[in-house]
Amino acid sequence: MPNKTIAVAMSGGVDSSTVAAMLRAEGNEVIGLTMQLWNQRRLAGHPGMPEAVQGRCCSLDDVYDARRVAKTIGIPYYVVNNEERFEREVVRPFVEEYLSGRTPIPCSLCNNHLKFDQLLITARQIGAEFLATGHYARVEWDEQRGRWLLRRPADTAKDQTYFLFGLTQDQLGHTLFPLGDMTKPQVRELAHKHGLALAEKPDSQEICFVPGGDYKKFLDAYLEEQGEALPDTAGELVTTNGGAIGEHSGIHNFTVGQRKGLGVATGSPLYVLQINGAARQVVVGGEENLYSRTLRAKKINLISIDDLREPMRVRVKIRHRHEAAAAMIEKTSEDEILVTFDEPQRAITPGQAAVFYDGDLVVGGGWIA
To answer: Using CB atoms within 10 A as the burial measure, which of 17, 146, 261, 309 is most buried?
Structure first.
C-alpha cells in the first residue's frame, strides 16, 4: 500500500516498532504515535506498591524506546497524552468492576475506548488515512457481505483477536495489522534487518497500571490516593445451598475459579463458584460445580454479520487463554446473546469477554453478565 499516510501506534515494543519500519520501507509516509496513558510513578511508594517494575507496556522506558526507533527509521514522532480519558474509561471501571465482584479486562477497554477510537481520531486529525498497530490479527474487506472482517493471525500462539472484538466497521476499515501473516520469530528477524536496537526486547506481560500484578494492592493504593475509603464489601462465604461456612474480608479479593485464599478449611478443596455483589456473598463449592453450559453476554458487538437473526453455530472463547469451545448463540434481546455450549465450560467469569468465532473469523463478542 505505497504512498499512503499511516499513523503507527508505537508502544515501544518490538511488534509496533517493526510495523513502523516495514511501512516506512515500503514507501509510505509514516507518523509514530505513542499514547501517554498512566504516570508510572504515580502510586510508587504506597504501602505494598513497588517503586519500579519492569515488563509493563506504556512505561516511560517504552516511550524512550519508541522515540529511538522513530529516529532510527526517520519518521516524525509524537506522544499523545490520554491520561485523563484512560483513567476515566479504563482505570476507574477496572476498580469499580472488582469492587462489584466482577473480573474486568482492561486491555479490551483500552482498545475499544482509546487505541482504536481516540488514537484513530488523532491519526485523522494529522492527515493519516490509516492507523497501523502491532497486534497479531488480520483485517480484510468482504465484497459479498459488504463488511470488514476480523480474522485470527497466522501465528495462533500470538492471537490477539480476543481483545479486539469491540472494533467497529469504521475502525476496522481504517486499521492495518501488518503482522497478521507473520510469526513472532519472523518479526524479530525483520526488526534485526531494519537495525532496530530493541529487536530482542521481551514482550510486556503485566497490566500497565498495576505494578507487580497485584490488583488488590493497587485497589488499596488507588482509593487511598483518591481520598476514598475501600468500601466495606465483607460478608459470608456460603455453599450452594446457602449455608454460611465462614466470613470474608471483601468480595474484591475473589474471582470465579479461585481456590487459594478462601480462609476456610474443609475435607475437600473448595473453589469460588459465584460472587454475589449485592448480598456481599461468595459462593463456594467443589470443582464439579464450576462447570456450566450457558452464559449471557451483553454490550454485543458483531463484526462478520450485521445482526444475529437466527441461532448460529460458533466456537466461543470465555477468556484469552481459553480454547474456543463449540456452542450455539442466539439473540435474546437487542443487546443480549445467550451462549449454550455443547460441553460444560469451567469457571465462566462475569466481567470477562465471550468472543464468537467461525473458523478463523471473528463473528463478534460481548461481556459476560
So the answer is: 17
> What is the spatial distance between Cα 278 and Cα 250, in angstroms, rounded to a whole number?
12
Alpha carbon of residue 188 to chain centroid: 23
Convert 225-244 to b/e letters by CB count within 10 Å (16 or more is b): eeeeeeeebebbbbbeeeee
Would you please indicate which residues are annotated as catalytic (active-site) residues? 110, 208
Q: Are 33 and 9 in contact (CB under 8 A)?
A: yes
Domains of the chain: 5-134+178-213 (3.40.50.620), 233-285 (2.30.30.280), 292-368 (2.40.30.10)
Whole-angstrom distance, CA of residue 37 vs CA of residue 20: 21
Residue 289 phi, psi dihedral angles, 5° rounding:
-85, -5
Task: Check if the beta carbon of residue 85 is closer than 8 Å to that of residue 57.
Answer: no
Listed in sequence order, the DSSP H helices in 82-165 are 83-86, 92-99, 106-110, 119-125
Task: List the grid coordinates of 157.
Answer: 500462539
Each residue's pLDDT tens digit in the chain (369 positions)?
557 999 999 999 999 999 999 999 999 999 999 999 988 778 876 776 766 555 455 567 889 999 999 999 999 999 999 999 999 999 999 999 999 999 999 999 899 888 899 999 999 999 999 999 999 999 999 999 999 999 999 999 999 999 999 999 999 999 999 999 999 999 999 999 999 999 999 887 678 888 777 899 899 999 999 999 999 999 999 999 989 999 999 999 999 999 988 988 777 899 999 999 999 999 999 999 999 999 999 999 999 999 999 999 999 999 998 999 999 999 999 999 999 999 999 999 999 999 999 999 999 999 999
Q: For residue 366, which of 354, 349, 352 has the smallest C-alpha distance?
A: 354
